[in-house]
Design brief:
The complex is a heterodimer of chains A (72) and B (266).
Chain A: E1 6-11, E2 14-19, H1 24-30, E3 39-42, E4 45-47, E5 62-70
Chain B: E1 7-9, E2 12-14, E3 18-21, H1 28-38, E4 42-49, H2 60-68, E5 71-74, H3 82-96, E6 100-103, E7 106-108, E8 113-114, H4 116-128, E9 132-137, H5 141-150, E10 154-157, H6 171-180, E11 185-189, H7 195-203, E12 208-211, H8 213-216, H9 221-241
Parallel strand pairs in B: 3-4, 3-12, 4-5, 6-9, 9-10, 10-11, 11-12
Antiparallel strand pairs in B: 1-2, 7-8
Helix pairs in contact in B: 1-2, 1-9, 3-4, 4-5, 7-9
The chains are: A mainly beta (72), B alpha/beta (266).
Chain lengths: 72, 266
């Protein structure tokens, strides 16, 4: 269950207001993040895909999405 | 065309001796054409904070990379401490599902020179965690010996600073590395500008070449990739064939026996 009360997190370096109690699956859906190859990191810890539905985002969390890019 | 022998890179047997980067191409299609023309079986790539959404290109890059069916060698580019590099390597393992990592720990932002002390520290940690480390290092013999002692099976000394295209600045140091670490798999990584630079490294007995800029910034990247592929194969074939020893004085190639009397000079 989520509420409409917003809380602030840091998402990829920028502040972002999200619904309190939201989990990662819901967050990805709300941000229109497509299925694909990426890794979710919360407060420097990798979150396994199997935990996206249960891992709740808390106020002040630093959430990063890491994706493949070109490199030499 | 005759191919040089296959070679072993950690647990993989490879035919191509060229590792190629995926950066700096003018378009995804140019990148794909160049990588295919190179015949490379190993490609380097990286990771950054980036959100694949419907409104941007999504994960187009990843889809293209997957279609190549190459081994992936993620790098830790842009890291300036062992801690950053280790963290990036762990993320890369999760993201790309590989234990291979091109370990870059930079010590100087002007010439992107590796920090040998932080490199050793990060290597030690990552090998303990089961990574197959490909350290981007300088051509310092003692550093390379210490990396080997830590368990690296592959070393990747620079030919010159990244992106300079200066070729092999210190062939002597690279030759000494080859002679002193005969069992080590060695690639020259960085600084290669021309196919002849790659040939020079391969004739010294290097096992392979890692490059990116020299192909990506060519006027015709796919054609340059072909040129490098052929040059690297030629250099390796020459090394395996055994290069003649250099001499200080001339030695005639045409027989001098039974010359007519007017050609006998002593």
């Amino acid at each position: 269950m989520t509420s409409n009360v917003n809380t602030t997190i840091n998402f990829n370096g920028d502040e972002l207001a999200v619904e309190s109690g939201i989990n990662i699956s819901q967050f990805l859906q709300q941000q229109e993040i497509i299925e694909g190859r990426f890794v979710v990191v919360i407060n420097d810890e990798i979150v396994p895909k199997s935990e996206y539905g249960s891992a709740v985002i808390s106020a002040g969390d630093a959430l990063e999405i890491m994706s493949p890019i070109t490199g030499g | 065309m005759q191919q040089a022998s296959t070679w072993q890179v950690y647990d993989q047997t490879l035919q191509s001796r060229l590792f190629i980067g995926t950066a700096l191409y003018s378009s995804p299609q140019v990148m794909m054409d160049a990588i295919k023309a190179s015949g490379s079986q190993v490609i380097t790539l990286s990771l950054r904070r980036q959100t694949p959404t419907k409104s941007n290109s999504g994960d187009q890059f990843w889809q293209l990379i997957q279609s190549l069916d190459c081994h992936l060698l993620p790098n830790t580019a842009g890291c300036y401490s062992a801690k950053e590099a280790v963290k990036t390597a762990r993320l890369a393992r999760e993201l790309f599902q590989t234990d291979w990592v091109k370990l870059e720990v930079l010590g100087d932002s002007y010439n992107l020179q590796p920090d040998p002390f932080a490199l050793l520290e990060a290597t030690k940690t990552l090998i303990a965690e089961g990574f197959k480390v490909f350290p981007y290092c300088t051509d310092d013999l003692v550093l390379c010996q210490k990396l080997a002692d830590l368990g690296c099976e592959v070393l990747m000394p620079w030919g010159a600073p990244i992106g300079t295209g200066k070729g092999l600045i210190n062939p002597y140091a690279l030759q000494i590395l080859r002679e002193r670490l005969p069992e080590m798999t060695l690639l020259v990584d960085a600084g290669i500008g021309k196919p002849s630079d790659a040939v020079q490294a391969m004739e010294l007995g290097y096992d392979g070449i890692l490059l990116n800029t020299a192909v990506a910034e060519a006027l015709e990247p796919a054609q340059m990739a072909t040129a490098f592929s052929q040059a690297i194969n030629a250099g390796r074939l020459a090394y395996e064939a055994g290069v003649m020893p250099e001499r200080q004085h001339a030695k005639p190639s045409t027989p001098t026996l039974e010359q007519p009397i007017w050609q006998q000079h002593g």
